[in-house]
Design a protein that fits this description.
Length: 484
């Protein structure tokens, strides 16, 4: 750093940023100030929301010229990455902190690696709080449906602690691309019309609707899956802090559910875990509600839920395990490699996929990141059990005569217990609503085999599908003695 001339030492510079999360504005101004040799304590950073004036300071609102021969400012990838999160924090000193660290980086290029440094630690701390707030917003935004002249519009009210709304916009667009929605907050609002994301002014809680059928559904669902025998109040409060409760429809039930937990536990042991919530009345309602479902860890992983598809009058329902990488991206079941195998076998067996309802036991994609790839992970039994509510709701509406479960997870989603596929395949089982359940292997199992093993398993799979095809045609014949 070059010596600083006296006038710059005495002057205070005001930098006005366009927005509280204006990273680019801060970065450009900070570069200019570094090149001009302006000391960290000589800058006042302002945003439209916090205009401040030090009346007694010698104030300049013009950028100072660079020092002669000033080198380009030095920075590090690590600093820039962290700075983009820190800038979203609501701490009014964040801009000064960032400039101070940038200033120090000019003479200490490895500063960011010094985890004991107070400034670096403070940056990491602020970034962590911002990340947590981003996560909470993703988990706790609840949309309420309102009808306007253009149809359904989903509106949510949320109170973030930091300036994270714009940074989170892309997530909500990807996740709820097919809905028209608005997220209102005390700082600003975001509006998605299915095509473009617009920003709007701050809102108040009263601008958001409070309560609608989707909410009733949520409550019913939450009450149904709330498992008192697993209740750990401390852990629950950590994940779902009380400050978010006021905007969560299901939170109204929490005190009551905790209070009644012991009684319910005894009841559940006696009667089995009974679903008590009201079921959605249409496949569209299920499709909308699963998008917002965060009842298990998979639902909270930021992926899009994939709804079943096919005619509501289908005699056959095929149930897979969960959407894979391609299905999650496309928002439709069975499009990837396992889907191709399934479709080819269905065609050979004469089962028209266009007359079949195809869905999954679990609606979100569970995976592990491996480099750029998302590697499939089997859902846990409790995750399948949690998602069963949605599968049962689809069955209640489609009312298929025959259900085909592909693999052990699908079988568990339908039976509520784990079975050995090899032992139960090839024969009909009865489901509680009177429909027939057939179970076979998952097509992804075939993809993992090769050589003779693959040929043998493909033949068994094909056999199972042919049996189902002929059972379906039997079921479609009018029963003896019945009249058309
Ligand atoms: N595997 C499944 O079980 N379901 C899909 O939708 C895709 C692959």
């Amino acid at each position: 750093m070059k010596p600083v001339c006296d006038t710059r030492l005495a002057q205070t510079f005001h930098v006005s940023l366009d927005r509280p999360d204006d990273f680019e504005g801060w970065r450009d101004a900070a570069r200019g100030m570094i090149r001009a040799g302006v000391l960290p304590d000589r800058i006042v950073w302002e945003t439209p929301a916090d205009q401040r004036m030090d009346l007694f300071a010698q104030v300049s609102r013009h950028s100072p010229p660079p020092l002669p021969d000033a080198p380009p400012p030095r920075t590090s990838r690590n600093f820039l990455q962290l700075a983009q999160s820190v800038i979203l924090h609501s701490d009014s000193e964040r801009f000064s902190l960032l400039y101070r660290v940038l200033w120090r980086l000019q003479s200490h290029s490895r500063l960011m690696e010094d985890r004991a440094d107070a400034d670096v630690r403070l940056m990491e701390d602020l970034a962590r709080q911002v990340r947590r707030d981003i996560h909470k917003m993703r988990a706790f935004v609840r949309f309420r449906c309102v009808e306007n002249e253009d149809g359904e519009h989903y509106v949510a009210w949320f109170e973030p602690e930091h300036h994270i709304l714009r940074a989170n916009g892309g997530f909500f667009v990807r996740r709820f691309a097919a809905m028209r929605w608005s997220i209102l907050t005390p700082r600003a609002s975001l509006h998605w019309d299915g095509d473009t994301l617009h920003e709007g002014p701050p809102a108040s809680r009263a601008d958001a609707p409070s309560g609608d059928p989707v909410e009733a559904l949520w409550r019913g669902y939450y009450a149904a899956i709330f498992n008192p025998s697993r209740l750990k109040v401390g852990a629950m409060l950590k994940e779902m802090p009380r400050r978010y409760w006021k905007n969560l429809p299901e939170a109204a039930l929490i005190p009551e559910l905790i209070a009644g937990a012991q009684a319910r536990e005894a009841q559940m042991v006696q009667a089995g875990a009974q679903e008590t919530g009201e079921r959605p009345q249409s496949l569209e309602a299920i499709g909308a509600a699963i998008l917002a479902c965060r009842r298990c860890a998979i639902g909270c992983n930021g992926t899009r839920a994939v709804m079943g598809e096919g005619p509501e009058t289908s005699a056959l329902m095929i149930v897979g395990e969960q959407p894979g990488d391609i299905e999650e991206r496309e928002g439709r079941p069975f499009l990837g490699p396992a889907g191709q195998v399934l479709r080819a076998h269905l065609e050979r067996a004469g089962i028209p996929i266009g007359q079949t309802y195809v869905t999954n036991a679990v609606k979100h994609f569970k995976f592990e990141n491996r480099g750029k790839q998302r590697l499939h992970h089997n859902p846990a039994a409790r995750e399948i059990d949690t998602c069963r509510w949605w599968l049962d709701s689809e069955r209640a509406l489609v009312r298929p005569r025959l259900v085909l479960a592909l693999g052990a997870s699908a079988a568990r989603g339908l039976l509520g217990r784990t079975v050995s596929v090899q032992q139960v395949r090839g024969a009909a089982h009865r489901l509680d609503d009177g429909s027939e359940l057939w179970i076979t292997t998952h097509p992804s199992y075939l993809l993992r085999l090769d050589g003779e093993g693959r040929e043998a398993e493909e033949a068994r799979f094909s056999d199972d599908l042919h049996k189902i095809a002929s059972r379906l045609s039997e079921l479609s014949k009018p029963a003896a003695g019945s009249h058309a």
